[in-house]
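Hi team, as promised in this morning's meeting, here are the two structures we talked about. I've kept the exact order from the run log so nobody has to guess. The first one is mostly here for context; it's the second one we should focus on when we meet again. Sequence first, then the predicted structure tokens.
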Amino acid sequence: MTPIKHIATRFALILALAAVLPLVAYGVISLVSLQRGTRESIVAGNLNVAARAAEEIGRYLTGHAEILKALAADIQDTGLERWQQDRILKNYVLQFREFRELTLLEESGAILASSRIGQPRVAAAPGDATTVAGVSMSPVRVDDDLLPTSVFAVRLRRLNQPAGWLVGELALEELWRMVDRIRIGEHGFALVVSPEATLIAHGDPDNKALVAQARNMSGHPLVTPRPGSPAWQEYVDESGRRQLAVAARMEAANWTVIVEQPTAEAYANASALQRQLAIAAASALLVMVGVGLVFGRRFIAPILSLQRATQAVAEGRLDTRVEAGSADELGQLGRSFNAMADRLVQLQESLRREERQATFGRVAVGLAHDLSHPIKNIGNSTRLLVREDIEPESRAALQRTIERELASLNRFVDDLRNLVKPKPVERYAMDLNAAVSEIVESMRPEGDSSGVAVAGSYLGAPLTIDGDRFALGRVFRNLITNAIQATAPGGEVTITTTRAGDFAQATVADTGSGIPPERLAGIFEDFVTTKRRGLGLGLAISKRIVEQLGGAIDVQSEIGRGTSFTVRLPVSRAETQAAAS
């Protein structure tokens, strides 16, 4: 996919970002604020529940402590008989059924009176007691009936002197029922922990067995909080659920009331609202992206059409045009492209016409120049031959001239024919040294007539190749002729044969004027020549012959020092295999 096809996507994204980014930013800020506000609200509500529960439990304990203090006030300093005291204790137990037993003790520990018939179960004041409203309270324990109980004790005084104890066993079943009634949602429960980190009550039915076990809760994050830590905490309980826990201190007995609720339930409404906001923002973003894609594709459709038309023109299909129906800048660009394509067609036709004219002119000049000389020589020789006073030796010379010029005309025609339809070469084993030496010997007279020495230097061993003697003779005659024509009188043309690996090389070097560097790249093309006359077909045909034989030809030249052409041809397979053996 080309980069331009991504413009629609980028346009849609830019449109979505411009339109939805503020909404997304506002949504993110709203979600964060909602999450923070919801958490603070839920924590505050749960803390309020825990505080009210602690206050209610405190009133429950304080109320029973006040009842015991009132009973102590009725008994002490009244001078009642023992049976009267016993009757009062029994009446209190009947009236306040949370007290299972009330016992009046002397300072020495002797039992004075008791609401229990028989031996009292509580016969001493608690030693490790907590003070609740001026009343000593023992740690809560679970009795044989798996019910919570505690011992309350009030010191009696007579004339401001210690005169014994009023001890009562208080059943705390109502405390459990109070804790069971504290519920937050469907899965939020309360629990009460003593100052010794012992679990006193738990509202979760699945965890009530922990109370009977006197479970130590010191591992709870709110039972032994670090200094400065908040009165709430999120933590993962033993079952792997994440809980939101809040704590309130009950000052009457220094107990801790903890209310726990799973965070999934506590933040359910906030999470649902967050999901709704996220879905709304995502839906808005998708809608804007879709709208951007639709309008983006419509917007860049002219650009895509212009791109396709540009590629078509680059591939040569100049008849390609674009539809420019709109009046905007893109329409103007399309019309400009069409005008450019029309102009390119005109320029191409003009160039073709000028190229045809230039080629025809060059061919015509070459033909006129190259054919006029042989035809003139043939005409002159023919007119002289018809004269009767011509000596036999002169007549023979004139016949040779006619034959030579006719051969030149035949070669010229062959060059033209090979230019249109190259003649296939025939391959057979031949010695390159012998073929080149024969051509050199035949070309020496031409060099001598021009004042140029033609010399050969050949490899001592045979250079057997698979080639066409006639075609290669034409190549080397052409190269040697060009070298002689490019060399001033007194110069030299040297033909050298060597071997380079699996290739036989023949180099034709002259000491002529050289070829300008800017012309070297095109000297093997058709109708390109550095001479004053000729069609410029010799080197082009020579290159094709060498390439048909699987070889290559290259040129090196230096102005004022000469030019060298090197023909490389693969050595015959038979010779290569023999050398390898």
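And here is the second protein, the one for discussion:
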Amino acid sequence: MENWERWAERWANAIERPRLLVVGGASLDTIHVAGEPMPTPGGAGLYTALAAARAGVEVTMLAPVPWPMPPELERVRDLIRWIGPAVPVDELPRFEIAYDDKGDVTLFREYLGAEPDMTPDLLNLVDDMPGAAYCVPFLDATLQREFIRELAARNCLTIAATYGKAVRDDRDVVHNTFDFADISFCNADEETELFTSSAGMHPSPRTGHYRFVTRGARGCTVHQGAHRTDVPAPYARALDPTGAGDTFCGTTVARLLLGDHPVEAARKGNVAAAHMVTMLGPAALWSRDTEPEALDPRAALDDDQIDRMAGLLRSLPDVTSFDFTGELFPEVGEPEAVEWFGAATLGQFGFWYERDGRYRGPMIAPIDGALRKGSDYLWAVYRRWQADALDPFSPPALASLDRATWLRLTRSDHKEQPFPDDNLWIDASRAYGRTLISLAPGISELVAFAAGRHRPVRSLLTLLDHVGGYREDPLRKKAALLCVILRQRPEHFLPVAPDDDVPPIVDYHVQRSCLRTGMVRPVDPRLRSHLVDRLIVDESEESAIRRAAFAAVARLSVMSGRDMGAVDWFLFQMRHRCPEMTRPDCAACPADPVCGHHTTLFQPVFRTTAY
């Protein structure tokens, strides 16, 4: 394993100042559309660079620069910085491509021009090296590997892609490049070719690395180490599929550099690629204006109601955040506090029971002489756990957690285990321990590292996207909660920094608050009926409500001027006055004057380890 601090530094440097170097440039292409040849700018480097710039990062493209500049490429210099050796226009690469009705290539002609003359020595032309660098797949696969290794030596976060011919002709070289790069991109056929052995398919990259696999109209797959997520794509009527993978790559990388979870970055990459293929060449990428990602039409935001709630939050003098101290939490100054919170927070999910396809009730049980509900019961378990063993929250200890130990630690005063599915908590703890063993000495080292960065919260969120138990949720509820805890504890493990707030912490209590106050409206009658009747919903229905709640809470924080810790604590505390099983006590609720009082609505009933 490489030095963990070098790994963490690459990721942190890349997101602190979102800039991207793209090695590989433009071409002058001919694309056959409906049988007619159409001239257009092209090139993997150009598509990737323009897509990244459109997604919001500063881009430098290192590639041969034609002189004089052809008119069709003039606007490139308004969008990105293009540096490299000057070459005559006829030395630019040129490709001719035709597709059939299925999008498969039926004609491909290439002229590489000056591309083979590129060498890693050209990196000396980059006077201010960005923190992240992408190298296109050259015709010579060894050249791409040389660039990736030289970029890594310059402490860049390295990104590589490939193409079919390179995979077929130079499989070992491409495989070695992918194994070395921090982030890699390929399509489904290339993945099969690269990672299928006599023992079967082995597509997962190492812990700490990402791989994105495009699957055409079916979207893409995101590998965060051994964890896999399939991300669907929006429908698009393709006119010209050239550059779709490059557009996905550039957009996804840019969104990663801007701080998105990799699954959220890929979701936006899918949207950008779907839009791009509806036009000829890179026409959709010339503008820096991106289409906002629409919410699921089954749920909507009520902007007026969010504004009313924001006004209420501005007017209340005692809207504060919680400092996570008291009998359920480590003493202030306790040496193992960070390890305790890191291990305990990943288990904050799923404290409810179901029966016959609907919600039955919350998890409530007595522990150590007190009746505790849900998250409070879990905090009590971890205080018990801390007293039970020496160094119980080390990565090796959690990686080897056995069921007997878990059952002993979690039993109630009635000698029962109250968790709805204890395997979920055991698996999360093991994944957390295993990934930390691969990444760093422990969570306290990652937190201390992040605390020293310019944007501590964003840095820690980015690192937690690699850690089992946290990485699985694209909306980062538990990761954001851990950041809030570490920032608000009296020790201030994470310092406050400008433009460094946490994302919304959307659990089922917050979703219920958003629905009942009216900030989120279930538009679809079927979905609304499921919420009122407390029926188990499917994944897409849950996502419709949760993503709407996420957007509503984000907007509420901005409009109220309150940080996310204060907003979350206000909404979370509403669970006492607007609970799951009894009539809401509206008169005791500070939100009552502006609340929509949609008290029949309930949170989506959906089993997940995210919240």
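Starting points for discussion:
The first strand starts at residue 19 and ends at 23.
The chain is about 40% helix and 15% strand.
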